[in-house]
Amino acid sequence: MSQLARTPKQLGAVIRRQRRKLGLTQGQLGERAGLRQETISLMEAGNPANRLDTLLAVLAALDLELQVAPRTGRVLEDLI
């Protein structure tokens, strides 16, 4: 199931939902991703200062991947 995330807060919510779905604590997810529990907490809270490699490590630990696609719901004139 795809989940849309356009903001750091939305991305954090996606990560939290998947972590809970897998029955993991923040600490356990941190161990899987090679990160501290505090880093997972900040990411789930929507901290906008996450590094791309940190995000990718967390997504991999959750068996998720990043896909880039055109935004939906925008009028063509908005893009010009």
Summarize this, please?
This protein is an all-alpha fold.
Largest sheet: none
- Total strands: the figure is 0
Rg calc: 14 Å
Percent of residues in helices? 55-70%
Number of helical elements:
5
Low-confidence stretches: none
In CATH terms, the superfamily is lambda repressor-like DNA-binding domains
**What is the overall pLDDT average?**
92
CATH class: Mainly Alpha
Gross CATH architecture: Orthogonal Bundle
- Proportion of residues in β-strands: under 5%
Instruction: Please identify the structural class as seen in this structure.
Output: mainly alpha
The shape is globular
Along the chain, the helix and strand elements come as: HHHHH
Overall number of structural domains? 1
CATH topology: 434 Repressor (Amino-terminal Domain)
Report the end-to-end length measured between terminal Cα atoms: 31 Å
Which properties best describe this structure?
80 residues; mainly alpha; 434 Repressor (Amino-terminal Domain); 5 helices
Give the helix/strand layout.
Blueprint: H1 8-21, H2 26-33, H3 37-44, H4 52-61, H5 76-79
Descriptive notes:
The protein has about 80 residues and is mainly alpha-helical. It has a single domain, classed as 434 Repressor (Amino-terminal Domain) (Orthogonal Bundle). It has five helices and no strands. It has helices spanning about 10-20, 25-35, 35-45, 50-60, 75-80.
